[in-house]
């Protein structure tokens, strides 16, 4: 076997060990090293050169990136998740016919969908969805994400929150927590539009808080423009309804005059 | 297994956000290779890549890579400016030699950018132009690459555009065909370098390069030097050539001189002549000093009984020189000749002989006009006189006038003035006998009682026309006449004459004389004085212009203002940007007449440059000025600016020609007439055709005249519309109900159409693409005839003979044959008209003509056959080298064809012309010199004066043009046929028709 490949797989083993040890600092360090080493392989995307070891290398690289994605969930780093996922994606799409299917594929794709949902990037969510095959849509991980999105769009927020109980994989927990916050933001946004003010009690219920204290903290952090007084929350509506547009009379007059002058000059 | 392709750049883009620099580098380099495919995806991440480029921590290579990537993305997004600035950031990674759209586009952009920065810097005279050194580096890399690859023309183009004369020189000197590249460069600098000073710089460089060559091309050098106005350089070259033992060098010197003369730059030519050493043996008084040394001026006027002429007088005196050093004698002899050429006398004399001997003007046309024009209508009467003068310009044939003295005497007052002046046009260039010819009409010193002032004034004007631009001998006489009279009309004539004779000499004394006339504030004399001052100062951009402008503001007479306005315009002739202040001043004036002068100033300052700024300005005035006169002139002026690119004019003025304003339509017609003169351009004719039947009379007039200018020397075989036009003219002239204005236009048009005995064309550019100053000035003043009919005669200045005149070492015209490889009918003279009005008689004379031609053909058949054989032999010998069989076949087919010749007589596909011959501009490309001819031209030129090298100097020469036309020609010999003297016995159309179709292959 290629010495370089051996070196990578050895490092990868150590990396996996570190994950199980939950030694995340070492993990990120080793991951970075791994990635740099991977750039040395010419069989990987975007080159996809045919080398004797290419299948082996591709599989290894895919494993590394899958672990990287999972690691990013564990350390709760959304940016890293996105980065690693995009680097992983070519192995699923472009190298599909050269590699045996990965057991983690649908789990990770589902995670990504969930992430997009959390970040409220609905357009991208649907783009990703369109790229999936019909069999993939049957997969519980994917199905879960799709159902969540539907509930979310319908406004059935309680269903979204209750879905936390039956996650297909334990890694989903992190995103489900985040989803609750996304849902709350949506509700807050809607309430702002819908009401001038709400009583604190109603607002607490509406925003799914268990205590008034939480509500106050939330309003202070996320919506400093809200005002809490007399037992009610006043939503400061954007009052800057644009003043009705002035007719640019002077400009129009000038234009008309110049047209008249030009007409005179027409040869 | 199918090759796997990436379907998205997402992974690589994600990698850019990694922390490890190696990963970023990996991502960048991979992105760079797939950017062509994935640029839409990458474009969303451009900010990240930009930040990589700006990150100081990265190493140079990585940052350049990032810049290159961004540049490519911007290129695909169509943001070329951003793309370029990042490409500059990529410095060496941007590979000039890469063959991709990206690189090509950006290179073009970079060069454009660089050129515009450089030219802007040059225009603002800002020496320290802050050019991005990286930009400069790219352009230099490109230039070096062009030179390395042998694409010299590209390199030169870029170098000129970017004002990199160092690179230009490098490109020229390293090219494999230096002569070719140099002449290409000269062409380019004339047609594409708009700024005058810069063009001078380029030319100066070219001269430098030329002089370094082992065998310099003196013809081109001298042309450059002329443009640069450096007579000393020309003189030293001429001297070197004349001193040479070799006869060929002397021939070359003569050729140089002829070429210089062709450009009609009188002041320059005089300068060259003054710098040439005076031949020792030459009697001193034969040389005319240009400076107005009072003593010699006196001397002159006293001996002025016969016009002073140096060429002839001195050639005689040279022989009387006591035997000196033979080489010195030879040198002196050559010097004399070259001085003769430079003074223009030799060429004028030869031209005169040519025009006289080949005169083909058709008196019947004039007769028709004369009969159909109503006697009492003085406008048409004098138009007929103008037409006659133009038709016979330079031919010295005044038969028509002599035959119709009675009719002529109806001209009174100003008509008399122009009738007399018309003699000047007819005898144009008759330098030796001009004075004696006009003597009966000239003011008789002191006595005053003689003729009417109108004919006296006209005679002075005529003298000016005869001596136009070569007035050395006549200036003094005209000055004296001007001083000794205070009759307005005579002053008018004298002013015009003086202006013409001293064209462009900027002579201070003459200027003062004319100024005195101007300050008398008489309308008639003042107008002529204004124009005359302009003529005197043509192209000098002297401060006199402001003096004239001040007076134009002071005086009350519109005529004077108009004369001055034109005069001021003339002073800035060809000065381009230098004239901008004056133009600005004039075009902003309250007085419409001065604005009108401003239009002329624009026209003349930018004449023939096709300068975009000038065109824009003129178009603006053409549609926005309140005065019709100014609008008309603005459109007309376009013709002057565009004459170097006649194809452009019809397109530019086509909209204006459909204007509701008749003045603008008139201007459009003349603009096309001026810029397309003599070209027969199809678009021009199509544009003018509808205008010739316009509803407004003066538009018809302008269109007819313009059409005639365009169709000069085009015959029906070339464009059938010429025939239609001729018939239209006849119809208008004969139609009793036609307006006087358009009738006058038609009469003038028939004159212009057959100008100079059908042997001249209107040409504003010399063969070397220089402006012909006299011609341009002539047309500019001619276009004033709107206000003052006598100015029509100025058109004669624009006529240039269409002839190939070969000269031997003695500057004589030897018999010499050459080939015009085209059907003779394409370029022959129009058929003489037959008896007019009587339609039934039309057929008869043609029949006579054809039979006589046949008879003659039979008579000359032997000769023709011999000639045929000679040519056949020639082809055989020429093709023999390639393969004998083919030549034999050629000969055989000839033999076979001969018996059949009688039957069909198809038109031959070539024609043998005999020196000197009429070669119309369209014919020039068909002219070939026979291979084994006795003479070989010094330079290959299809027309004009060509010096011939005699390969068999021992054999006796046969001269074909010998006799000068005698001025006092008897009327008896003045019939159309009689004019063809013995010299033209071999005239082109009498050539026997060669029998069989025959391909002459060279």
From TrEMBL, chain A:
Any GO CC annotation of this UniProt entry: cytosol
Q: Which residues form the PCI domain?
A: 79-251
User: Which Pfam family is one of this chain's hits?
Assistant: CSN8_PSD8_EIF3K
> What name appears for this protein in its UniProt entry?
PCI domain-containing protein
The record lists the lineage as: Eukaryota, Viridiplantae, Streptophyta, Embryophyta, Tracheophyta
Per UniProt, the keywords (alphabetical) are:
Proteasome
Question: Which GO biological process annotations does it have?
Answer: proteasome-mediated ubiquitin-dependent protein catabolic process
Name its species: Acer saccharum
Q: Into which family does the record put it? A: Belongs to the proteasome subunit S14 family.
Automatic annotation (TrEMBL), chain B:
Q: What Pfam families does this protein's entry cite?
A: HEAT_2 (PF13646), PC_rep (PF01851), RPN2_C (PF18004), RPN2_N (PF21505)
Cellular component terms (Gene Ontology): nucleus; proteasome regulatory particle, base subcomplex; proteasome storage granule
Which residues does the UniProt record annotate as the domain 26S proteasome non-ATPase regulatory subunit 1/RPN2 N-terminal? Answer: 8-359
Leader peptide range in chain numbering: none
User: Biased composition, Polar residues: where in the chain?
Assistant: 281-304, 963-983
Q: Which intervals of the chain are annotated as region Disordered?
A: 280-322, 857-910, 957-1002
Indicate the transmembrane segments per the record: 786-807
Q: Which UniProt keywords apply?
A: Acetylation, Isopeptide bond, Membrane, Phosphoprotein, Proteasome, Repeat, Transmembrane, Transmembrane helix, Ubl conjugation
- Biased composition regions of type Pro residues, renumbered to the chain: 993-1002
Q: Where is the composition biased (Basic and acidic residues)?
A: 860-876
Q: What GO molecular functions are on record for this protein? A: enzyme regulator activity
**Which SUPFAM superfamilies does UniProt cross-reference here?**
ARM repeat
Q: Tell me, which GO biological process terms does this entry list? A: proteasome-mediated ubiquitin-dependent protein catabolic process; regulation of protein catabolic process
Q: Which domain of life is it from?
A: Eukaryota
Where in the numbering of this chain does the 26S proteasome regulatory subunit RPN2 C-terminal domain appear? 802-958
Query: Which purpose does this protein serve, as stated in its record?
Result: Acts as a regulatory subunit of the 26 proteasome which is involved in the ATP-dependent degradation of ubiquitinated proteins.
Similarity comment: Belongs to the proteasome subunit S1 family.
Record text on subunit structure and interactions: Component of the 19S regulatory particle (RP/PA700) base subcomplex of the 26S proteasome. The 26S proteasome is composed of a core protease (CP), known as the 20S proteasome, capped at one or both ends by the 19S regulatory particle (RP/PA700). The RP/PA700 complex is composed of at least 17 different subunits in two subcomplexes, the base and the lid, which form the portions proximal and distal to the 20S proteolytic core, respectively.
Specify the protein name: 26S proteasome non-ATPase regulatory subunit 1 homolog
According to its UniProt entry, this protein's organism is Acer saccharum (Sugar maple)
């Amino acid at each position: 076997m290629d010495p370089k490949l051996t070196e990578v797989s050895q490092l990868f083993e150590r990396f996996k060990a570190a994950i199980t040890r939950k030694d995340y600092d070492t993990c990120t360090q080793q991951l970075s090293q791994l990635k740099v080493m991977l750039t040395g392989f010419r069989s990987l995307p975007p080159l996809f050169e045919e080398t004797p070891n290419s299948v082996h290398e591709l599989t290894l690289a895919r494993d590394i990136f899958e672990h990287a994605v999972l690691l990013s969930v564990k350390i709760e780093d959304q940016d890293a998740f996105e980065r690693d996922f995009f680097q992983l994606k070519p192995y699923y799409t472009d190298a599909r016919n050269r590699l045996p299917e990965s057991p983690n594929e649908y789990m990770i794709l589902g995670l990504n969908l969930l992430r997009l949902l959390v970040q409220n990037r609905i357009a991208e969510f649907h783009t990703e969805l369109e790229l999936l095959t019909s069999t993939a849509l049957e997969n519980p991980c994917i199905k879960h994400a799709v159902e969540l999105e539907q509930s979310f769009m319908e406004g059935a927020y309680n269903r979204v929150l209750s879905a936390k109980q039956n996650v297909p994989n334990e890694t989903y927990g992190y995103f489900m927590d985040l989803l609750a916050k996304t849902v709350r933001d949506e509700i807050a946004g809607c309430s702002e539009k819908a009401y001038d003010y709400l009583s604190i009690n109603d607002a607490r219920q509406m925003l799914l808080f268990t205590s008034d204290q939480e509500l106050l903290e939330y309003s202070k952090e996320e919506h400093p423009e809200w005002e809490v007084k007399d037992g009610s929350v006043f939503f400061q509506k954007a009052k800057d309804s644009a003043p009705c547009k002035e007719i640019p009379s002077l400009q129009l007059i000038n234009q008309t005059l110049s047209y008249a002058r030009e007409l005179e000059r027409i040869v | 297994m199918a090759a796997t392709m990436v379907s998205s750049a997402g992974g690589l883009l994600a990698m850019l956000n990694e922390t490890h620099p190696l990963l970023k580098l990996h991502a960048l380099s991979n992105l760079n290779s797939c950017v062509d495919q994935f640029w839409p995806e990458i474009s969303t991440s451009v900010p990240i890549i930009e930040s990589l480029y700006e990150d100081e921590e990265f190493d140079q290579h990585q940052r350049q890579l990032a810049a290159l990537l961004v540049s490519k993305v911007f290129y695909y997004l169509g943001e070329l400016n951003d793309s370029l600035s990042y490409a500059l950031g990529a410095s060496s990674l941007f590979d000039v030699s890469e063959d991709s759209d990206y690189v090509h586009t950006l290179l073009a952009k970079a060069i454009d950018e660089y050129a515009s920065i450089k030219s802007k810097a040059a225009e603002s005279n800002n020496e320290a132009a802050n050019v991005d050194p990286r930009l400069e580096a790219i352009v230099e890399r490109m230039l070096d690459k062009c030179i390395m690859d042998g694409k010299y023309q590209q390199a030169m183009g870029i170098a000129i555009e970017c004002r990199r004369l160092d690179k230009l020189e490098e490109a020229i000197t390293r090219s494999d065909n230096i002569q070719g590249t140099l002449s290409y460069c000269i062409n380019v600098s004339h047609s594409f370098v708009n700024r005058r000073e810069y063009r001078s710089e380029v030319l100066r460089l070219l001269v430098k390069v030329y002089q370094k060559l082992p065998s310099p091309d003196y013809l081109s050098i001298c042309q450059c030097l002329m443009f640069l106005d450096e007579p000393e350089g020309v003189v030293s070259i001429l001297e070197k050539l004349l001193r040479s033992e070799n006869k060929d060098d002397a021939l070359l010197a003569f050729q140089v001189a002829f070429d210089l003369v062709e450009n009609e730059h009188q002041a320059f030519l005089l300068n060259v002549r003054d710098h040439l050493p005076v031949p020792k043996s030459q009697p001193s008084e034969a040389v005319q000093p240009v400076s107005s040394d009072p003593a010699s001026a006196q001397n002159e006027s006293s001996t002025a009984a016969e016009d002073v002429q140096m060429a002839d007088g001195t050639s005689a005196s040279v022989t009387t020189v006591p035997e000196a050093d033979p080489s010195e004698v030879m040198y002196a002899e050559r010097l004399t000749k070259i001085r003769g050429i430079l003074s223009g006398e030799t060429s004028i004399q030869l031209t005169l002989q040519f025009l006289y001997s080949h005169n083909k003007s058709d008196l019947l046309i004039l007769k028709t006009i004369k009969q159909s024009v109503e006697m009492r209508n003085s406008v048409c009467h004098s138009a007929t006189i103008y037409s006659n003068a133009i038709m016979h310009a330079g031919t010295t044939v005044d038969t028509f006038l002599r035959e119709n003295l009675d009719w002529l005497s109806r001209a009174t007052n100003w008509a008399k003035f122009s009738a007399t002046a018309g003699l000047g046009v007819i005898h144009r260039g008759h330098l030796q006998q001009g004075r004696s010819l006009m003597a009966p009409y000239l003011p008789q010193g002191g006595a005053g009682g003689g003729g009417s002032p109108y004919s006296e004034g006209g005679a002075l004007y005529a003298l000016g026309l005869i001596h136009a631009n070569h007035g050395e001998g006549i200036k003094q006489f005209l000055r004296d006449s001007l001083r000794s009279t205070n009759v307005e009309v005579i002053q008018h004539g004298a002013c015009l004459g003086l202006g013409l004779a001293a064209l462009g000499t900027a002579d201070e004394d003459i200027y003062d004389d004319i100024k005195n006339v101007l300050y008398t504030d008489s309308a008639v004399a003042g107008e002529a004085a204004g124009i005359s001052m302009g003529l005197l100062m043509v192209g000098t951009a002297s401060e006199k212009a402001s003096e004239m402008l001040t007076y134009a503001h002071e005086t009350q007479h519109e005529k004077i203002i108009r004369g001055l306005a034109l005069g001021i315009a003339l002073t800035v002739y060809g000065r381009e940007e230098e004239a901008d202040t004056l133009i600005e001043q004039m075009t902003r004036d309250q007085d419409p007449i001065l604005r009108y002068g401003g239009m002329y100033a624009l026209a003349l300052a930018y004449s023939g440059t096709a300068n975009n700024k000038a065109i824009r300005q003129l178009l603006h005035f053409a549609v926005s000025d309140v005065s019709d006169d100014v609008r008309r002139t603005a459109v007309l002026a376009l013709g002057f600016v565009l004459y170097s690119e006649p194809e452009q004019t019809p397109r530019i003025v086509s909209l204006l020609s459909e204007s509701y304003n008749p003045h603008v339509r008139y201007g459009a017609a003349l603009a096309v007439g001026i810029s397309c003169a003599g070209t027969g351009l199809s678009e021009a004719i199509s544009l003018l055709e509808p205008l010739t039947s316009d509803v407004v009379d003066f538009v018809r007039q302008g269109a007819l005249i313009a059409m005639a200018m365009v169709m000069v020397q085009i015959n029906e075989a070339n464009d059938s519309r010429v025939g239609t036009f001729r018939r239209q003219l006849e119809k208008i002239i004969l139609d009793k109900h036609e307006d006087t204005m358009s009738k006058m236009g038609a009469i003038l048009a028939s004159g212009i159409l057959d100008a100079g005995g059908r042997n001249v064309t209107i040409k504003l550019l010399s063969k070397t693409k220089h402006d012909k100053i006299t011609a341009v000035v002539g047309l500019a003043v001619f276009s004033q005839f709107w206000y003052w009919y006598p100015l029509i005669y100025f058109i004669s200045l624009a006529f240039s003979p269409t002839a190939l005149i070969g000269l031997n070492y003695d500057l004589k015209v030897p018999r010499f044959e050459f080939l015009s490889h085209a059907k003779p009918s394409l370029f022959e003279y129009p058929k003489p008209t037959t008896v007019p009005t009587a339609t039934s008689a039309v057929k008869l004379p043609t029949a006579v003509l054809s039979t006589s031609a046949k008879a003659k053909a039979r008579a000359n058949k032997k000769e023709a056959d011999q000639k045929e054989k000679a040519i056949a032999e020639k082809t055989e010998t020429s093709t023999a080298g390639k393969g004998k069989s083919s030549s034999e076949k050629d000969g055989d087919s000839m033999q076979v064809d001969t018996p059949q010749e009688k039957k069909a007589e198809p038109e031959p596909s070539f024609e043998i012309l005999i020196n000197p011959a009429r070669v119309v501009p369209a014919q020039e490309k068909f002219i070939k010199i026979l291979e084994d001819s006795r003479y070989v031209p010094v330079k290959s030129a299809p027309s004009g004066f060509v010096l011939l090298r005699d390969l068999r100097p021992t054999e006796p020469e046969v001269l074909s043009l010998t006799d000068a036309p005698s001025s006092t020609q008897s009327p008896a010999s003045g019939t159309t046929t009689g004019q063809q003297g013995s010299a033209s016995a071999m005239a082109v159309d009498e050539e026997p028709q060669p029998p069989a179709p025959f391909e002459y292959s060279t």
